[in-house]
Amino acid sequence: MSDINPLVILMASIFTNNMILSNFLGMCSFIAVSNEIKTSIGLGQAVTFVLGATSIINYIIYKYLLVPYNLEYLRYIVFIITIAAFVQLVEMVVERYAPTLYYSLGIFLPLITVNCAILGVSLFMIIRSYSLIQSFFFGIGSGLGWTLAIVAMAGIKQKIKNSPIPKGLQGPGITLIITGLMALAFIGFSGIVKI
Amino acid sequence: MSSIFVTVFIITTIATVLALLLTLANYYIADYGERKIVINNDKELYVEGGTTLLSSLISNEIFIPSACGGKGNCGYCKCKVEEGGGPILATELSYLSEDDKNCNIRLSCQVKVKENMKIEIPEELFNVKQYNVVVEFARDVTPTIKYLRLAICEDKEIQFRAGQYIQLLAPPYADSNEDVFRAYSIASQSTTNKYIELLIGYVPDGIVTTYVHKHLTKGDKVTFNGPYGDFYLSDSDCDIVLVAVGTGMAPIRSILLDIKDKKISRNVIFFFGARTEDDLFMIDEMKRLEEELPQFTFVPTLSRPDKNSWNGEVGRVTDMIDKYLEYKEGREAYLCGNGPMIKSTVNHLIDKGFSEDNIYYDSFD
Ligand code: FES
């Protein structure tokens, strides 16, 4: 088990080991939903929530069901089932209690299921042998990091909305380039801590 | 061996617990309770919340046109939602014009009933009903067009105006596993209330046309709902130009039979286009109408005739417009056919002095 302070993991997963900008996980919704700051914050919250919750649930299932019975190899399918079920739950809750958000997220809410950042967190926490608390902080941190990246991207996109971008680069093209630049900037943080 | 059991058991347990959780959530969170829909400030409906507006209305026997069966890709199921529809969804955008958006027009198959709602729908739709019918005959009038008569079984009667259409339901069959509705114009006259006639062209791989052409025979039971549409003869007394190709004959025939039944005395000319002689149908009937109605002229035209046997007009319907019509204002035109044909016909008619407001059309696609 690693003995890093959970708070360090939290900070690291927001800045130095950002899911999008250093691991490039969860790119599809990052590119598609980052048009408006409000929607991005909403999706970010949903992702953070799902990450926090599934990291705990998956940790418990892994530690207390899969490991004792030597079924670690089942972790992919089990993690995905839990994530899928959880996302569905979140969808129902958002649809019921935050309809505006539900409508602006549209198809991307169910797509959290296949957001690789989420499966990534569950798998990283196993590989890095985190404890329950560490996993939880890692999950929340990754979610916040993802939110940070997508909101920053939405902000930038809004700024460049009226800029004369060459035709071939408009849309996803320029988004990918900006993502690359952001990733370069975030590299500046790396090496501060190792998680 | 035991490891297999353990694996299966563990996976099953996890799945069961999650399924249980979701079922409970569905029961408590996705339960919207009973909601009220006020229609045209007059009729009130109480429906189970959480389903789409379209299906809530259908379950209350109010039928809104929905050719795609609620999948959000025909754009027919529009209605005005005054209150309680929530914001416009991404899935609706491509079917709503700016005007629609400003007037709160929505696609009823996408809007969910979550709050009490106020909506407006055309009064005629209250006249729309679902009918169970028996196929009285199903004949091939050309190699690709079937002529059907559907007799209404119960003691219901259908009231419609010549030119309107119905939606025929194809139940699941060999090549399709769901209920599919498609719109077809009524070909019979509006004075007969116990049956309707349809002309249905074969579209390769079309779910409903394949059902009609390959599976439906005399005596079969089917279902349709209707009537819908606002393509019908105006009450004016100016001259009428009718233009149709292929199964576009259907609403035009209905209009013509009505003109005869109701003894309407307006000058009528009908251009009917087909490719070859094989594609022509109901020609005898049209000729008979021509004899019975002194003010009616029928002009069939073929675009690819067999020169040896055909001695009628040759060319497209637009050529006939150029040939037969003088420049004159104050006439009405009724067109039925495919999009490109309608488009070019409209241009030719405008060249002949028609005002765009007096050109009515029913486009198949
Ligand atoms: S039913 Fe086809 S779009 Fe709504």
TrEMBL record, chain A:
Keywords in alphabetical order: Cell membrane, Electron transport, Membrane, Translocase, Transmembrane, Transmembrane helix, Transport, Ubiquinone
Stored InterPro entries: Ion_transpt_RnfA/RsxA, NqrDE/RnfAE, NqrDE/RnfAE_oxidrdctase
Gene Ontology BP term (one): electron transport chain
Subcellular location: Cell membrane; Endomembrane system
This protein's record includes keyword Methyltransferase: no
Enzyme Commission code(s) on record: 7.-.-.-
Domain of life where this protein originates: Bacteria
Bilayer topology: Multi-pass membrane protein
Gene Ontology CC annotations of this record: endomembrane system; plasma membrane
Record field: transmembrane: 6-33, 40-61, 73-94, 101-127, 133-154, 174-193
UniProt keyword Translocase, yes or no: yes
Matches recorded under Pfam families: Rnf-Nqr (PF02508)
Subunit-level organization: The complex is composed of six subunits: RnfA, RnfB, RnfC, RnfD, RnfE and RnfG.
Recorded family membership: Belongs to the NqrDE/RnfAE family.
HAMAP family per the UniProt record, alphabetical: RsxA_RnfA
Free-text function comment from the UniProt entry: Part of a membrane-bound complex that couples electron transfer with translocation of ions across the membrane.
Protein name according to UniProt: Ion-translocating oxidoreductase complex subunit A
Automatic annotation (TrEMBL), chain B:
TM helices/strands, residue ranges: 6-29
Keywords: FAD, Flavoprotein, Iron, Membrane, Transmembrane, Transmembrane helix, Transport, Ubiquinone
Residue span(s) of domain FAD-binding FR-type: 128-234
UniProt GO molecular function: iron-sulfur cluster binding; oxidoreductase activity
Domain of life: Bacteria
2Fe-2S ferredoxin-type domain sequence ranges: 35-125
Gene3D superfamilies xrefs: 3.10.20.30, Nucleotide-binding domain of ferredoxin-NADP reductase (FNR) module, Translation factors
CDD domains: fer2 (cd00207)
PANTHER family: NA(+)-TRANSLOCATING NADH-QUINONE REDUCTASE SUBUNIT, NAD(P)H-FLAVIN REDUCTASE
Protein name listed in UniProt: Na+-transporting NADH:ubiquinone oxidoreductase subunit F
Phylogenetic lineage: Bacteria, Bacillati, Bacillota, Clostridia, Peptostreptococcales
